[in-house]
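[agent] plan:
  1. take the single chain provided in the ticket
  2. run structure prediction with default settings
  3. attach structure tokens to the ticket
  4. add a short note for the reviewer (M.T.)
[agent] executing step 1
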Amino acid sequence: MGDHRSPIAFVRGKQEACSASADCMLAMRPISHHDEVVVFTANKGMRRAFMALALCAMTGCQPQPQKVSESIAKEPSDMRTTVPLVRKLDPNQTGPIELEFDVPAWADNPSPPLFIGVRLTNVDPAAAADGDSTAVSDAADRLRAADVSAEVHLYRIQESGQIAVSLQRSQWKTGFGPGEAVVSLAVPADGLVPGLTPADADVDTMEAAGLLPPGSTYREFAKYSELEFAYAPSVPSGRYRATIRFVRNREALFKENAALINSELIIAYPRQGK
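[agent] step 2 finished; step 3 output follows
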């Protein structure tokens, strides 16, 4: 087993220690959008949990809603037009990807955050059988290192026309790992995002939409990994349009197919604090 030392989060110079339990992690105090978060993790196995905590701080986590809109109903995953949704990425499609979709109202948060990015899924039955939990995370690391850039835009559709929604992106100051800091940067008007960063989709809404098996075990969760291009901290319910155009190194998204790792576009809510 690896090192089980407690992780430590530093927020504007204030040290907070926490045990490795999920309850403790989620009980840590909310962090302002303007705070710089430095996360120290004990080992690679715990990395994703503390990444989620840091990203939760950046997107302004709200209390977990008691119930989301009934419009988050199960339908074929590649036909969903309600967040959360995924779309298969076609290696032969080189032009912009455009999606229109609805953001339903949440019971406890009328303007939840959402992110736009890529979901990786391990479809290798042999890996699933032996509980391989590293193939997807390793693929995610390779995509981050590949600097897959894209132009990302989000618009709210209204009767008077469409209104651009301001987007932000997360940046790990020195890469990703123990002792590194994540900050939030505004996406410029041209929508250019220089690469993918770690993300963590909200489990409850993904399960409700049929995009995760209900009551997933750790082994089942290990088949998936999400990466983010950009996010919107506050999105009121309504109709939206997203456009994504890959600018550089899009081929890296499809190299993973040879390793039985599927790449999909994802628009989803980030994991919410309890």
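[agent] step 4 note for reviewer: The first helix runs from residue 22 to 27.
[agent] ticket updated
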